[in-house]
């Protein structure tokens, strides 16, 4: 579980427009041309807030400029620089420079060039930046969360007095030992509840974080790794929640479902490992697979989920907070005539090496109607190499009757998908009434296009980025429905080949592009 920080004031990373002015009156002309008696004033001055209270400064340095260094002065809540809060010297080679400041403060910042050739110092260039609430909490790790308590950590030896947790108004007074260690356990919580913790020094906020407590095992059927999972599922009443303990389950092969269930791991940080495939038959209304590690190794030509049997109407099928890998066929496959599915959603999951043969598409709805496909906050790595990514076909007796298929890809990272046979499609949607949206998403390392199908409506795009994936914006490809608003940028992945898609490109981080897990 990722920690979400609560911030106040303006959002981080807002680019602020520099105000250029003179040292005394702040309205003298800036010196930025040749044959001057002064050094050139810094131009293109920008300030971005990073990590709540750190300001990143940058400005342009022309080739003909040769300053010895720059002087940067900060004043807090003082636009006239009557009191200088901090002064630093910066060389051109140090740009951009990050400066740690205090939270919830309006800083006036001025920069001048100091020469090495006897010229006078330049005039000041001025900008402002507003820092956000201080954040000395460390991210809350999944292993530190229980159903009834949470372990919170912050910078050791910080001046802090208490932790306030809501809802419930739980107050934990920090002991001297906890202050020194930067660790405290807060008790008195309820299971599966979203909490906000605030770290205080007296009345001053020093950090804020949100987390959701773990599962209360009294509210479900506990299944252990040595148990017969298929038998446990068969014995469970419809609507039950099966809580799988950590470990490698001995049950392998096909799990047949004919009733609504929630199958989830008890511990997010220690997901149960399953070597199974799921077959959905009539009787299933809703299915949730949560906090599982699903492995298709040695399963013959297996899809993760297959909708089978007679025609039926299904509700919501959810995959959440799971790791899914090494299945030869589809993530979900449905080819039952006259069957309907309300939604298929993948959220906060990592899917790798799924649909690696050529027998299916990755999300594969053919004669079965799907109303909603949602992929969000997830990573899809090396999936459907030679086939299409999302397929919603002309379902017999249902397509063209007024039903609509909606597809959404939001805050996802797609890498090396639908890549080996060009042009494969991310949105192979031929159901006659359809709508597709792709936003806040990063796609890299593929020759795929979105679609070249007449039946596929033009997708809606917003904040989409591509790297080594030029076909999405290539209007020369016949019938290609392109993303004319997309941006090409190198995400600077830490190690994509090993599955580490941590982004180092600051623009993508600022704009929150791709699976959020890689943007911290």
Helix/strand layout:
Layout: E1 19-20, E2 43-50, E3 54-60, E4 67-76, E5 86-90, E6 97-100, E7 106-115, E8 125-130, E9 150-153, E10 162-166, E11 170-173, H1 176-181, E12 183-186, E13 194-201, E14 204-212, E15 221-223, H2 229-235, E16 240-244, E17 248-257, E18 261-265, E19 273-280, E20 287-290, E21 293-295, E22 305-307, E23 313-320, E24 323-327, E25 332-334, E26 340-347, E27 350-354, E28 363-365, E29 369-376, E30 379-381, E31 390-392, E32 405-410, E33 413-415, E34 427-429, E35 434-444, E36 460-467, E37 487-488, H3 506-511
Can you tell me about this structure?
The chain is mainly beta. Helix content is 4%, strand content 40%. The chain is built from three helices and 37 strands. The chain has helices at residues 176-181, 229-235, 506-511; strands at 19-20, 43-50, 54-60, 67-76, 86-90, 97-100, 106-115, 125-130, 150-153, 162-166, 170-173, 183-186, 194-201, 204-212, 221-223, 240-244, 248-257, 261-265, 273-280, 287-290, 293-295, 305-307, 313-320, 323-327, 332-334, 340-347, 350-354, 363-365, 369-376, 379-381, 390-392, 405-410, 413-415, 427-429, 434-444, 460-467, 487-488. The strands form five sheets. The protein has a 23-stranded parallel beta sheet that branches. A five-stranded antiparallel beta sheet has the order 1-8-7-4-5, with no helix packed on it. It is flat. 37% of the residues are buried. The model is unreliable at 1-28 (pLDDT under 50).
């Amino acid at each position: 579980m990722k920690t979400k920080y609560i911030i106040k004031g303006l959002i981080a990373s807002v680019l602020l427009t520099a105000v250029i002015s003179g040292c005394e009156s702040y309205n003298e002309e800036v010196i930025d041309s040749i044959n001057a008696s002064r050094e050139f004033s810094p131009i293109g001055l920008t300030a971005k807030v990073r990590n709540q209270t750190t300001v990143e400064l940058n400005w342009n340095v022309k080739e003909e400029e040769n300053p010895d260094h720059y002087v940067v002065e900060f004043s807090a809540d003082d636009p006239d620089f009557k009191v200088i809060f901090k002064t630093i010297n910066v060389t051109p080679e140090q740009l951009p420079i990050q400066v740690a400041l205090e939270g919830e403060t309006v800083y006036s910042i001025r920069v001048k060039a100091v020469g090495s050739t006897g010229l006078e110092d330049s005039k000041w260039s001025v900008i402002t930046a507003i820092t956000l609430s201080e954040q000395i909490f460390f991210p809350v790790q999944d292993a530190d969360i229980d159903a009834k308590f949470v372990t919170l950590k912050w910078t050791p030896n910080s001046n802090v007095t208490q932790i306030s947790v809501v809802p419930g108004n739980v107050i934990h007074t920090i002991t001297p030992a906890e202050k020194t260690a930067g660790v405290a356990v807060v008790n008195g919580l309820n299971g599966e509840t979203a909490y906000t913790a605030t770290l205080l020094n007296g009345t001053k906020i020093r950090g804020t974080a949100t987390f959701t407590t773990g599962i209360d095992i009294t509210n479900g059927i506990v299944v252990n790794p040595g148990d017969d999972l298929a038998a446990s599922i068969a014995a469970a009443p419809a609507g039950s929640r099966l809580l799988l303990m950590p470990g490698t389950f001995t049950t392998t092969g096909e799990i047949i479902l004919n009733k609504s269930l929630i199958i989830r791991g008890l511990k997010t940080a220690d997901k149960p490992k399953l070597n199974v495939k799921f077959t959905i038959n009539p009787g299933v209304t809703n299915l949730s697979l949560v906090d599982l590690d699903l492995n298709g190794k040695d399963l013959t030509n297996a899809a993760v989920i297959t909708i089978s049997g007679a025609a039926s109407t299904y509700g919501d099928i959810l995959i959440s907070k799971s790791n899914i890998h090494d299945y030869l066929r589809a993530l979900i496959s449905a080819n039952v005539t006259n069957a309907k599915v309300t939604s298929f959603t993948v959220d906060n999951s990592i899917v790798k090496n799924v649909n690696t043969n050529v027998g299916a598409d990755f999300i594969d709805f053919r004669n079965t109607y799907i109303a909603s496909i949602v992929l969000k906050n997830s990573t899809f790595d090396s999936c459907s190499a030679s086939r299409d990514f999302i397929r919603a076909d002309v379902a017999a007796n249902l397509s063209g009757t007024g039903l609509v298929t909606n597809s959404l890809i939001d805050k996802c990272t797609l890498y090396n998908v639908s890549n080996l046979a060009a042009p494969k499609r991310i949105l192979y949607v031929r159901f006659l009434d359809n709508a597709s949206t792709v936003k806040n998403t990063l796609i890299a390392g593929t020759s795929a296009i979105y679609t070249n199908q007449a039946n596929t409506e033009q997708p809606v795009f917003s904040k989409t980025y591509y790297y080594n994936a030029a076909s999405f914006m290539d209007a020369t490809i016949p019938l290609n429905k392109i993303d004319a608003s997309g941006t090409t940028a190198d995400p600077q992945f830490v190690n994509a080949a090993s599955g580490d898609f941590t982004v180092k490109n600051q623009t993508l981080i600022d704009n929150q592009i791709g699976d959020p897990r890689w943007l911290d």
